[in-house]
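REQUEST FORM: STRUCTURE PREDICTION
Request ID: SP-0412
Submitted by: Lab K.M.
Chain count: 1
Length (residues): 214
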Amino acid sequence: DPGDGDPDWRKHANGLAADPTVAAAQVAAIREAYEEAGVLLAREKSGAIVSGAVTLALSGFRASVEKSDALFMEMIAREGLTLAADALCLFSHWVAPPALHRRFDTLFFAARFPAGQQVLEDGLEATEALWIAPADAVEARRKGTRKIIFPTVRNLELLGVSQSVDAVFDDARRRPIRPVTPIVETRDGRPVLTIPTDLGYPVTEEPVETATRY
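STATUS: Completed
RESULT:
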């Protein structure tokens, strides 16, 4: 949203990237997690991540923030909080192919879930919240019990490579993170959606007929 790139966020956040585009994405990631899931990656004056009690007390502002992103900074400043952008780890970067009707240029971040907080889906953009292992989500997609789009399932598979939360961050910092733009290639006469093979993804292609089903 336009307000995510406001330079004044540097007064109200820790660990924003020097690159303004990445910094805006960090703000957007924290704001969207708050709006859609009620999870707030922000620090109190003590430096501690806000407690579950604080996020519950602020849950009434979520609908207003969703309607006007400018209110997010207002809320953070009023409550004396700072965004914990330093708690985010860049996980991947995906860009839509030129011919795709759905346009996106998306940075994905990983973060440790704040102790004491709870997920409260907003019922609009997020309609169900659950804890699920990456491999179980991928298997549910294979069975057809969950719909997961191509970029998300590839990222779930990548997430599943790491065996712990700490390993997620360590692995992400070690591997190259470049924009991933899927392209269509032909394998044995069939169109296949592919991504680069040198970015750490355990699965790098899928038949177009299944990749576009979702």
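NOTES: Strands lie at 13-14, 42-43, 82-84, 89-95, 105-110, 179-180, 183-187, 190-194, 205-207.
Reviewed by: T.R.
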